[in-house]
Amino acid sequence: MTASDQSNQALSEIIESHTKDRGSLIPLLQETQAKLGYISRDAMQAISDFLEIPRVEVWGVATFYNQFRLTPLGKHHTVVCMGTACHLAGGKLILEALERELDIKAGETSEDGNFSLERVACIGCCMLAPVAMIGDRIFPRMTPFKAEEALIPYKQGDDKDAEH
Ligand code: FES
């Protein structure tokens, strides 16, 4: 079974577990993203067909809420905490530095598929604010300069070293 078949099967299972009314739209999008990592065009079409609402309506809801991604995650998924403590400690500057350095905006994936960037709510280590994560690794007390520096091994493909 190809990855695409598996995605289609997962999507069918999600859709079949819902009732055919508009109130199912957001739960369908949430479950699709939780299972597939993002909301693909095919998923939007399938949800639109199932709910019998225009695809543009599904797209409108998916783009309205920050929680939904319309592109797959990159190999190195990078998140910046924008919870209260991190926001007050300069989280926005960290996000801007990463956006500049990766040449993508929050919610996007780089063209080569190596990086995706996202802003998230508190990740539970406020004492270390501002915090970012690349993959599973936490980067505490970030500065814009440290953010740029942290990316270097990942960009060079030396991310095994970066894990330690
Ligand atoms: S607010 Fe960023 S870790 Fe809690």
Distance between the termini: 36 Å
CATH architecture annotation of the largest domain: 3-Layer(aba) Sandwich
CATH topology of the largest domain: Glutaredoxin
| List of distinct ligands in this structure | FE2/S2 (inorganic) cluster
- Give the CATH superfamily of the largest domain: Glutaredoxin
In short:
By secondary structure, the chain is of the alpha+beta class. The chain has two domains: 3-64, Arc Repressor Mutant, subunit A (Orthogonal Bundle), CATH 1.10.10; 76-159, Glutaredoxin.
Write the layout of secondary structure elements.
Layout (H helix, E strand, L loop, with lengths): L2 H14 L8 H12 L4 H11 L3 H10 L11 E6 L2 H5 L2 H12 L12 E6 L11 E3 L2 E3 L4 H12 L3 H4 L2
Parallel strand pairs: 1-2
Antiparallel strand pairs: 1-3, 3-4
The structure holds FE2/S2 (inorganic) cluster (FES).
FE2/S2 (inorganic) cluster binds next to α5.
Question: What this model shows, in words?
Answer:
This protein has 164 residues and is of the alpha+beta class. It folds into two domains: 3-64, Arc Repressor Mutant, subunit A, CATH 1.10.10; 76-159, Glutaredoxin, CATH 3.40.30. 49% of the residues lie in helices and 11% in strands. It is built from eight helices and four strands. It has a four-stranded mixed beta sheet with strand order 2-1-3-4, covered by helices on one side. It is elongated, with a radius of gyration of 18 Å. It starts with a helix and ends with a helix. The mean pLDDT is 91. The structure holds FE2/S2 (inorganic) cluster. Residues 81, 83-86, 122-126, 129, 131 line the site of FE2/S2 (inorganic) cluster.
